[in-house]
Specification:
76 residues, mainly alpha, two-stranded antiparallel sheet, elongated
Length: 76
């Protein structure tokens, strides 16, 4: 029994399970991934405040890694 036979016996799928074919009633709001308080729009993942804090944290970490990698090395 293939899909065509099933549709022939039971009828179209939208009649069996109408909730699967109904349009979504409300649109989900995306929240900031860090603070979960501010709704963001578009492709943004973080609100402005959290994005700025994240950028500062990343810069701080990269500066720290730079200093520690080259700080105690001696040349050949």
């Amino acid at each position: 029994m293939n899909f065509d036979d099933t549709a022939r016996f039971f009828g179209p799928s939208e009649k069996l399970w109408p909730e699967l074919f109904a349009p979504p009633s409300t649109r989900a709001t995306m929240l900031c991934r860090r603070c979960r308080n501010v709704a963001v729009s578009g492709i943004r993942r973080f609100c402005g405040k959290c994005a700025h804090a994240r950028k500062l944290e990343a810069t701080r970490e990269s500066k720290r890694a730079k200093r520690s990698l080259n700080g105690r090395k001696t040349g050949n």
